[in-house]
Predict the structure.
Amino acid sequence: MSRNSERGEHILVCLSPSPSNPKVIEAAAKMADAFHATLTAIYVRPTNYDAIPAEDKARLQNNIRFAENCGAAITTVIGDDVPAQVAEYAHISDATKIVVGRSGIGRRHIWSRPQLTEQIILSAPDVDVYIIPDSVADIKQQRKGLYDAGLIRPTGRDLIVTLLILAVCTGIGLLFTRFGFSESNIITVFILGVLVISVLTVSPLYGALGSLASVLLFNWFFIDPRFSFHTYEAEYPVTFAIMLISSLITGTLANRIKRNASQSAREAFRTKTLLDTNQLLQKAEKADEVMRITARQIIMLLNRNVVIFPRESDGKLGGGSAFGPEQSDGEASDADENEMEIAQWVFRSQQAAGFRMERYGKAKGQYRAICLNDYCYGVIAVRLNRQPLEPFENSIVTSILGECALALENLRNAEEKEQASVIARNEQLRSNILRSISHDIRTPLTSISGNADNLLSHYRQMDDETLKQIFADIYDDSEWLIDLVENLLSISRIENGQMQLNLSLEVVGDVIEEALKHVDRNAAQHHLTVQESEDLLLVNMDARLIMLVMINLINNAVKNTPAGSDIRVESRQSGEKAVIVVRDNGPGIPDDVKPHVFEMFYTGRNKVSDGRRGLGLGLTLCRAIIEAHRGTITLTDNEPSGCCFTVSLPMKEVAFNE
């Protein structure tokens, strides 16, 4: 039965060195297109992969490339139980269909295991299994391949190791005989020798040969009559049989342990490489750093040169950057027009190309797209030097590129979120500006318009005192609007870095005195006092801007304190700093508002008597100007009530020559 279709179709096709495997892959690809399904190609790599003939390895590589060109994701697992591992991976990956090829080769013996397809069906009863039959020519080729695979090609090294170990065991046995050791001890020596042979040799054939040879040597050298294969005792044939079976079992177990150890070592290496890659990529903060880490991990794995073609900001593929074991990172590559054409094709199609592939088979290396969710971040080229990657290497490179694409996707998502956040903040800022300006300009403009209309209609009936009051109101409102515009222009110039400081050596007391001439006329309703320092405070400043700061701070105190309040301006020296303090005894600022008073468009909860709220630009402008002078401005409470704004500016030492 099929799995729940709500999960989406996932088709799993089995890879093998079989000549008919491309037909199976093609059928699976057509099925994936028909069902709009995800296609995965799995290869179960046997533990004796090194013993596979070179012709089969080359055919397997071509089949893997063909699967990649058909849009399949390649997965490699290691093991000898193909049906169990295919079924296990199908369950883990939520595969809904398995496509596998079936040959016409039946069981060779009645005690033989069922065919591969039958075992897969039994191992995965809840997954639909589609069997693609082979042609007669394919069956003949497979039979020949099975016969070739069944032949164990001996190597000179393994043969010498086997003969040497058997000779050593025989020598030890002769030595034991001279010292009167029993035959059971000599049998143990030969069994130990078979175990060592199985561990040190590559092919399991030598373990079986060692088992048989040990029995024959034991019979020849240690059983009477010696130097013959005859025996006087009737029980010795049973001993020989038990010895042979023990040796075979020992050798088989040793070979199995060796294969499992090799498999575990490969899996551990793969896991460690992917874990290290993942940890390094998580620390990367830029796309080029992700690309560099990916290249170095592949170089560490394959010890081959790597070229990365990144995606440019305009969406096109950029030039290549070369990485290698013996060269610095990010050097310009020597990619020619043919290589750029291959990289462009891989970038557009998001498919692999290169060495021993149907597409661009004569390329310098293997080219893979770094892509995720139909978005390609670039192309990576692995220089192969006419040596194709093994399936295990292909699998781990694919995994590393997957980690790279995921890291780049996370960076892109973070960048898009940041851009969206900036746009949202800008929109909010613009909305605040429009709302604040429309709200705060309406009142003075309405006052100016109403007073002007009143003058036009009734100025002859008004006495001098009324006219003077109307003129004063119009002047105050226009001055307020001028200050608003000046603050807006100053803020925009400072934020954009366009404000130029016209620095000159100025006396702090003179700047304060000049600022007092331009404060709000309502300051006359307050008790405004100035306490200057007895020392001459010289500061390298832009006097016009510092005067603007003083005007804003004093006007802020005037507007936010009731009439009759005390406003005090002090100046003094503190170390190498000139300190200016503006304090009042008004109602003060709540603690929850203080952290925000220097923020743009923040007006707090205080209301002034004329109904104007103010844009909240004055203190923001003050902080920007003071910081441009490398100074500081802080807000503290005045005792027993009120606010205290403290400005610190670095002083300038001057040498006077009499």
About this structure: DSSP finds 16 helices and 18 strands in the chain. The first helix runs from residue 21 to 35.
